[in-house]
Amino acid sequence: MAAMSGGVDSSVCALLLQRAGCDVRGATMVLRDAAVPVAGAGPHGAACDVAPCGSSRDVEDARAVCRRLGIPHDAFDLRSRFDAAVIRPFCDAYLAGRTPNPCIDCNRHLKFEALQQRRRELGLQYVATGHYARRRWNEASGRWQLLRALDTAKDQSYVLYHLTQDTLAHMLFPLGGLTKDEVRALARDHGFVTADKPESQDICFVPDGDYAGFIEGYCGDASAFAAGEIVNREGRVLGEHGGLVHYTIGQRKGIGVAASEPLYVVEKDVAANRLVVGFKDELESRGVVARDVNLVSGDALDGRRHVQVKTHYRQRPVDAVAQQTGPDELTVTFDEPQRPAAPGQAVVIYDGEVVLGGGTAVRTF
RNA sequence: UGGGGUAUCGUCCAACGGCAGGACUCUGGUUUUUGGUACCAGCUACCUAGGUUCGAAUCCUAGUACCCCAG
After folding, report:
1. CB of A103 under 7 A from strand B?
2. Are A240 and A218 in contact (CB under 8 A)?
3. ipTM of this complex prediction, to 2 decimal places
């Protein structure tokens, strides 16, 4: 079963499986939007909104690619699950002052849990996705390992740290050894309608980028939208903010306070509804504590382990020491001070090309 | 009120009498399957009224506002 988002990567994913001689069927998750498109509907693209990920337009595109490949295509209505597993937690996290990563939740609960469930129901062997990542069987440990993509510029293993051994055993990542250029070239060669679709960006269910407005519309009024003071580390009032929901740790734009140098958010004081800001040199962090930990490649962490860590999707991994500090708690100490991670973000640790695992940042130090 | 000082983008500061420049904010763009970051670009100002001068942000006079010291 090839998970097809309606983008170029998953289109090529299906193509490569077919080329490899697999018996492929495409599957698209309908995550939001109005109607589930009816099979055989007219040509795609007629006055559709440009919307990434799970919209009716994407379902049409995925279906068109499957038709071209001559493989069956199914659309699964996962809208209510998307709401419960992604949107709701996303809003709750923001309202509590954290900075969630909805793409991680979506991968975890929909692309993997829900699609694997479908796979079992259909009696199929694998779910394949268009992620730029690789897996490898480790003879020594008798476990599957999750690896970074060969094209490190496009590597997406960061969003997969939560995979289980059982899921990994039934996953394929056909794009893990390719570059984006190669993938696009393949798509063009095969005349896929998705060949030149832009890279997805922004939160798929908030296409205009106004996530705060979305949360307000979804959850109604809340204290996270209340105006409050902007202060520096010494407690001096520098201005007023328009609700803590608009800010995240490390943020520079949108503070609205002019100073000799740029100011960054160094802390969100939810209890006092105050935004604490400081200069760049006040944005130093020695490490981060993560919960909801998953060690995807199976290795337990014995004592202190030298690793590389990312606290953001597009960060280059930095050297650090990771240590299990509780039954479900991981403490990562950077070798050199870093920009702080925002609570709610994913902390992912690597040993070279192997993804060891990760968790959700709960606090920094 | 007596003496002194300062008035320039939204903010903070520059500019020998010769096209008003920078930092920050803001806006836009690039990058990006999250928020952010980073990078690039752009907008906006000489307190008012006179005078001197070929030419005034700059020199002079008056007004206005603010600051400091005297109270």
Report:
1. yes
2. no
3. 0.86
